[in-house]
Please model this.
Amino acid sequence: MNVPTDMYYAGGLRRKMPGMDDFQEEYKMSKKIRVLMLMLCLVLGTAMMGGCGAKDGDDAGNSGSDNGTADNQYVSVDVTIEEQILYNANGIVVTAKEYVKEATLGEGIKLLVENNSDKNVTVGCKSIIVNDYMVSNLFLQEVKAGEKKEKAVFLSEAELRAVGIDNIGKVEFYLLANETESNNPIGEVEYATVNTSKATEADKAEPIEAVELYNADGIKVSGKIMKDDSFWGTSVLFYSENTGDKNIGFAVEEMHLNGNLVRQYFSSAVYSGKVSMDEIPLHKDDLKENGITDIEKVQLKLYFYDEDTYEIIAKSDVIELSAQ
Model:
């Protein structure tokens, strides 16, 4: 399955979203932008340390392990996968090697990235989907021409547990390679699925008890106001389901807290047949700046667009959520 490359971000590449002319530089300030900021930190860390998570004694840029954790930090896990190639194009090969677990970062899949081209490349994920639930992902790996690196992509264990997923049975990857220096994409996004030994025991994400905000053309979005939740914090939380045949993105066009207009930059994607949980964090400092001591109601407008073509396909009326 091929999808457009220009939504991939690795240190700067992004495409302007439809209908967000005023927000281009700050777009996606939700769960997804925090992930991308972490990706950028990985890039900067690689530049400063000669490889993010490189082991002591490794020469910068040499072929070898770049796991982000030493092998002896892995702990026993009763899940396995079959080794398989996920990406093989333009001299770049990405292979899923084994299922791993790290004491702090949780469960993941160790990938081997081989660069047989004559260009330095950065390989990352546009999306990772676990048991049909779209997760945040932190995978980004730079590999110099003619070299190879191993690195584990960890599967957002805390987030998965927050939505009721303990047993991981299926992991879907949307992988993309960029030229490191120019950040230009190399080829198309490649799709691959890895099934684990827990496939028959895989958990599904649990829907939240929330107010239905939108339901049309196979897209259903529910929401609720969270206050000091142990995982989601104080936020507006969305649970979205896509039973249609298109990959869909949605964003907040306008948002009011207790009647006050606030600038929030939020965008999420939910692919065909998938579900997603996303939040707009409401930080105490931001609330204080707007003179808000307690959240009583949220009013917002959503718009929906085709994730592959970026064509706007629908807009909601004003939606109101009240604190419970």
